[in-house]
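To: structure desk
From: M.T.
Subject: fold request, one chain
Message: Could you run this one when you get a chance? Sequence is below, nothing fancy, just the single chain.
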Amino acid sequence: MKLVCLDLEGVLTPEIWIAFSEATGIPEFRRTTRDEPDYDKLMRYRIDLLDKHQLKLPDIQRVISTVDPLPGALDFVRKLRAERQLVILSDTFEQFAKPLMQKLEWPTLFCNSLIAADDGRITGYKLRQQNGKKEAVLAFKSINLEVFAAGDSFNDLAMIQAADSGCLFRAPESIRKDYAQIKCVDTYDDLLTSIFNHE
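Reply: Done. Structure tokens follow.
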């Protein structure tokens, strides 16, 4: 049985933190896993920045409610799910993802959780597990699923390398250059071709 594991932000939806940066006018929120390979360092930076500007979970959720999937993403998901099982492996958070999953017609999502105080202040986060994307791929393979994986950031490299096959999707030039051995595609049609050609 064939399974496709995809990253969410940058592949199917815009980057939530970039959308939040644009909505708040605070450029420091634009920093993502494309820029910072250390996820814990990135999240501590974001939480400190939220505190500095007195921004809370509902503020982020209001922005997320206005975010739509990337152009062509829903059609891509529909075509893919007609032929393959799909699981989204993301470092986003349960508290962020629901409106985006609804707009993508509810694919399966494995992600992390935020820790928030009663007043909505984000105080921390809880990983589903360390190296969750890679570990999910290895677990799927352990039950004899054939896995194709794709993503766009540093935190997707381990799952792509652990999968039976995979590629980068719209990755920044720095990642393309440093990981030239991993194929990179830039359109949903080319991504579908890459997935379906790995028979």
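Reply (cont.): The mean pLDDT is 94. Let me know if you need anything else for the meeting.
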